[in-house]
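Subject: for your reference before the review

Hello V.,

The reviewers asked for a structural picture of the protein, and I figured it would be easier to keep everything in one thread rather than splitting it across files. Below is the amino acid sequence we used in the manuscript, unchanged from the supplementary table.
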Amino acid sequence: MTIMPFSAKLAVAAFALVAAASVAAQEACKMTQVAKALSLADMYKMASERAKAWKPDAKLASMSTTTLGLLKPDGTAASWHLIFVSESAKSMVSIDTANGYFTCYANAGGGGRIPDLAPDFFRDGAALYAIAKQQGEALLAQGYGVMIGTAAAPSNRHATWNINYHKEGAKDGGLLVIVDANTGKLEKAIR
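And here is what came back from the structure prediction:
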């Protein structure tokens, strides 16, 4: 009898989890190619249209850039990750851009604490980058990039854009900039 080492058992278990997750996810829109990096506003518009086509009651639960495509000074990013939830279907859809493709996959479950976003919430990525630059110019000079993501306060779901600084292979920049997601006004910078 052959005894499988722990690391091999762990690898088999991880593969089984990934396989199970991919079986549970269902394509919610046709994968399409994206010719260029999308602005925050354009990404939200495209994703919202696809989410509403998936389930008419779909509501944004979160939106962020990823390390595959940080926010640029013009407000665009090559990689976005959005989650919309449908209360009626008790499910969520993840909508992503990465490596030049736009994808949508639905899963059962909720989207966590949903920020209290106004219908016309702040979607100016260039203005968010300008705030990130103003607050973290030294980090940008050291080669850090800008990541943004929505958040919801635990007590009242107050919606914010959280700005972080990322550098491949380094610790985060040690600075969190919080901006009101409905007005675009700087709330605070935490070091």
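For the response letter, the relevant points are probably these. The chain has a mean pLDDT of 89. The chain has one domain: 25-190.

Happy to draft the paragraph if you're swamped.

O.
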